[in-house]
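Box S1 | Example of a co-folding query
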Amino acid sequence: MATILVTGGAGFIGANFVYLQLNEHPEDRVVCIDKLTYAGNLETLEEALKNPNFRFEKIDICDRDAVFALFEEERPDIVVNFAAESHVDRSIENPAVFLETNILGTQVLMDASRKYGVKRYHQVSTDEVYGDLPLDRPDLLFTETTPLKTSSPYSSSKAGADLLVGAYHRTFGLPTTISRCSNNYGPYQFPEKLIPLMIANALADKPLPVYGAGLNVRDWLYVEDHCKAIDLIIRHGKVGEVYNIGGHNEMRNIDIVKLIVEALGKSEDLITFVTDRKGHDMRYAIDPSKIHAELGWLPETMFKDGIKKTIAWYLENKDWWQNILSGEYQNYFDTMYGARLKDAKKA
Ligand code: TDX
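Box S1 (continued) | Returned holo structure for thymidine-5'-diphospho-beta-D-xylose
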């Protein structure tokens, strides 16, 4: 029986990972810490909280004393760090908290992992650390040896953390692994990200704000496939290695938005082209051949099925996201999109 410490487990990918662990590895114990920022929602973990193999503590990974006290008590075998500020647009407005949580928080977790001799420290990273690819070179994909070349304060903070993880492995012998995944979608994603934002706005007949011309390409992966890949890495991956995770599923933003509009039976008139994101990455595309060859991982959910499941989940769980869309998030939406929508063009 292993104790797995999951940080950021009240967030989108972390919560999906908690459920995967509790379902697939009932012999293991899952301890989750989360700061419960705007993006963490304890309601998401309601089912997990009923499981005797699950413990939740509201702890910020930057709080060294609280983190060390928890390690002292729980002595985790494996640490999986999902805790991060993750929204690019927010990082452009306010970079400081990204550097604190994403870099210094990672340092605190690795210091505790060293002191308490964890068997594996896993860092959940992103394909954004590789920068972007041109639209006219579909042959180019990110591999694990692609140089880090970041565009936003968010991706720079994640790249900084990745470098620090590499340093703790080489300098202190910490048994680390890193995974870099492409864009995720699925249940429990916060409605500031493209897919849930478009679903929520379309259902409310609000404008669908597409940045620039909507031609940017992302490589979409169903969140459960990402979680399964991390599960394989922490149990069978090689220490010191980086693994790229992606589903060979490149789509233009505009095509995703049109697909959502159609699935919900709404009008394309809602599509509104707004001022582009500063430093907007053109294209992400992952080469997942290493994790396939070494660990046998392949994505199981096709996009056409995953997007249907996701839309159905948002329709069935309106309470979950409608609670979020009140209060602080509404202020964020007005600040972030108010000026953009004034200069908007219709599709
Ligand atoms: O309102 C919007 N309009 C729009 O056109 C939003 C929120 C996004 N977009 C565009 C920007 C991107 O090209 O859609 C694309 C996806 O945007 P996001 O959902 O913000 O994701 P992205 O910037 O691609 O980053 C995501 O993938 C990598 C995650 O947010 C990161 O945390 C992850 O590391």
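The mean pLDDT is 96. The CA atoms of residues 87 and 193 lie 7 Å apart.
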